[in-house]
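Methods — Computational structure assignment.
A single polypeptide chain was analysed. Its primary sequence is given first, followed by the predicted tertiary structure written as structure tokens.
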Amino acid sequence: MTFYKYHGTGNDFILIDTRGKNIHLSKEQIAHLCHRRFGIGADGLMLLENADGYDFRMVYYNSDGGESTMCGNGGRCITLFAKHLGIIDVIANFVAIDGPHTATINDKGLINLHMNNVTAMNIYDSYTLLNTGSPHFVQWVKDVKAIDVYNEGKQIRNLPRFQPDGINVNFVELQEGKISVRTYERGVEDETLSCGTGVTAAAIAASGTATGNFITSIETRGGHLEVSFTKDMPTTAINVILTGPATYVFAGEIKGEIE
């Protein structure tokens, strides 16, 4: 089985082209492939499948082997993967678990990924809850570098109110002209260097109840991202676009049985 490795601002993925191939991976096999010591190593694994009416279908699994909700960094990576496979040129129309998406590779090599609209935000004094294709808890902090993301994120992710599926947890520092974000991702069960749906959630949450057109610059441990959106209502967002790089790392083959 041939695999490809990509990353989006340090959020890394195994990608497999399954079109016309009889490839079926169990949860245990996917977790093994994503293991950083016994496997290839990745935050998640994606299958590129045929889909009627679209360029392709994106099927995303977290590193624990479970199929997950939308992944923004993954959406950019699979778009570049589709270009390398010759499926698209600069525009991709694909479908994921949360519905259709459009992505465009711009003249700087960055990828503009159209995310789903946000239909509701629950705003509290120190945090905001919203869904950007995946559910997110956005916690405001004074110094994001000082946060124990693993332990604090794990505690919030496992609160009874968010069960049985849990929630992704973002710690966000508001800075002049930008925000800095660190994320604990469910399914990975650790901090990742970047989370696409997480930074999208953080950017929209940072707008509070204001309305208008917004462009937010975001710093993650893995690099720089940008989110633009429009708010006609205080707690909804439309025309949501996540912009950032996608990078090919290497390709290889897995031979024999995967335990």
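Note: The helical segments are 27-34, 72-84, 149-157, 196-206.
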